[in-house]
Amino acid sequence: MTVLQIDIETYSSIDLKTCGVHRYVEAPDFEILLFAFAFDDDPVTVVDLTDYFGVIPKDVMQALRTDVTKTAFNAAFERTNISRHFGIDCDPRFWRCTAVHALALGLPGYLEGAAEVLKLDAQKDAKGKALIKYFSVPCKPTKTNGQRTRNYPHHDPDRWQQYIEYNRQDVVVEREVRRKLERFPVPEKEWRLWALDQRINDRGVRIDPVLVQHAIACAEQYSERLTIDAKELTGLENPNSIKQLKGWLAERGLETPDGLSKEFMPALLDAAPDDDTRKMLEIRQEMGKTSNSKYDAMARTYCADDRVRGILQFLGANRTWRWAGRNVQMHNLPQNHIDDLALAREVLRSGDYEMLELLYGAPPFVLSQLVRTGLIPSEGCRFIVSDFSAIEARVIAWLADEHWVLDVFQGHGKIYEATASRMFGIQFETIVKGHENYKYRPFGKVATLACGFGGGAAAMMKMDKNKEIPEDQYDPLVKQWRNANPNIRKLWYRAEEAAMEAVRGKTTVKLAHGVRYRYEGGILFADLPSGHSLAYPQPAIKRDTKFDKDGLIFYALDERNKWVPQRTWGGTLVENLVQAIARDCLAENLMRLDAAGYPIPLHVHDEIAADCLRGFGSVEEMTGIMGQPIEWAPGLPLSAAGFECDFYQKD
Question: Which Gene Ontology molecular function entries are recorded, alphabetically (predicted)?
C-alpha cells in the first residue's frame, strides 16, 4: 500500500491556538507556505509555495484527490488546510493520523514528545518555534523591520532556508514515529470512527451570534458596575488588584491569604470586622463569577457561516480513548435550571440587561445558565438529543457480574432507590416521595456515584453537592455500599492482580467479559471486548511504601508535560475499563446513527445531539437505536432517553 507522508507550514493572521484551524483558514491572508512530502521510503521533498516556480507535483495532487493513503501528525490540520488552499475534498477515509496512533498507545500526542519517548534517532528540530513565530504569524512593526506586519522569505533568506529544512525534518521524524508504531496497529474499525469524527468536526455546530455578543456585552457591563462600586467603597485606583485590595483589607484589620481564592471567602466573610469590609468581599466574590470564557470562545472560533468547528478531540483522553473538548470546551458546560429558558434567552438577545437581571437575578448566574443555548440547530432543523441512562453504573455491574444491579437495570431502572434499599435493609417500595424512607434516596445516589471505583469519604464529599449527608456518615456509607456490591469490590482487586501478573510474567491474563491484560513490547495492554486496547507504557512493579505492598506503575505525561512514572491501583484500572467500554458504546451508536441518516454536530460524554430537518427522525427512533444490544457486550443492558429542542440544553 502506497503511503503519502505530509507536513505543511502555513500563514494566517488568525491565531491558531485560540481560534481553531477552521477559523484560521478563513483569514483572507491564509496560505500554505511549505509543503513537504514523501511517498513511502522516498527522500523527502519540500515545495516552496511562496516561490513562483513552486508547484505541487501532479502525482501528489492526484494522490490528494484519490484513495491513496495520506498520513500526517495531527492530520486534521493538514486536511483542513489542504482542502482550503487547493479547493479539494480531503476525504478523511483516506487519511491516517499519527498523533491519534500515538495517543492510542498512551504516548504524547505532540510530535516532539512522541519522538523523545520513543528514543528515535531522528528528532524534531528545536529551532521550529522561533521559525514559526517569524514566518507563520503576524509580527509587530519595529525599528528594525519598519512598518511591516509580516515577514516574507526575502526578509531573511538564510532563516527561510532553515524553515525549509525544519519542514523536511518534520516529515522524517513523523515517518519514523509512524514506522515505530506500526507494530501495534490501530484497528480499522477505529479509523472508520475517526473518519466519522472528522466529518462531525468539519460539520460543526451552529451558534447564535446575537446571543453570544449580547452575553459578552452584558457580562462586561456588569463587571464595570462592580468595579465602580468597589472603587467608591474602597477609594482604590484598581480594586481588581489583589495587592491593593489586600492592603485595604489589612488596614481594616482583616489579614488575608495570598490569592484571595474563592475557597477562603466564606471564612473571610465570617471574619469581616465591619459592613464595608463584608460588602467589598461580596463584590470581590461576585467579580469572580463574571468569567465569560465560553461565550468568548464561541465568538473567537465561529466561522463565516456561524458554525463552530473542531471542538472534539478524538482520543483526547488517551487513557480511556474518550473524546476531549477543544476550543469552546463543551465537556464542562454548566447545567441549566431556569424554568423558562426560551424567555431568558430572548430577553438577553433583545439587549435588555436590566430586565434580564430583574427577572433572573445577577447576570453571572443567568449567563451561565444560558451558555448551552448559544448552540442552535441549522436553518429548518431541530436538535434531537439523547443520552445513555446511568451508563457507567450499568457497565461496571456488567463487568463485575453484580447481578442484582443488572436486574435493576433490566427492570424498573431505579438504581438509587434500589441501592439505598440494599444498603439499609429497607423495602424498595417505601423509598418514594411522601414516605419517611425517601430520605435514604440521596444516600443511595451519592454512594452509587462516588464508590464504584473504590472512592472513599473524600469521593462521597465531592459527590454530595447538595450536602444532604452528614460528614460523619461518609465512612460508614462507603462500607455499606461495598457490602451491598461485593462483586464490584472484588473486581478492583482482581483487575490489579491480573495487571500485575501480566507485567511480572510478561504474559496475558484474562479478567472478565473479554477483558484481558497483556504485556507486549514494553507496554501493558488492557484488551477490551470491542476490539481495541488501552495502553500503559513502560509498566513495572514497585513497592508502594504508603500501603507496604507491591504496586503497579506506568509512564505518562504529568500536568507539567513531563514523562514520569505514575502509580495506579485496581479501582483506577477498573475506572479506566468502565469509561473506555462506555466510550465504545457511544462510538458504536455514533456509527449506527450516522448510518441511519442522523446528522451529528456534537456529542458530549454519553450524550449525542442530532441536527435533524423537521420531519426527519424522532426521539423514539434515536433512543431506540441507542438502546439496542451491542454484539461484543452480550447481557449489557443499555437504555437511552431523549428530547427535542430548538436550542441546545439539558432536559
Answer: DNA binding; DNA-directed DNA polymerase activity
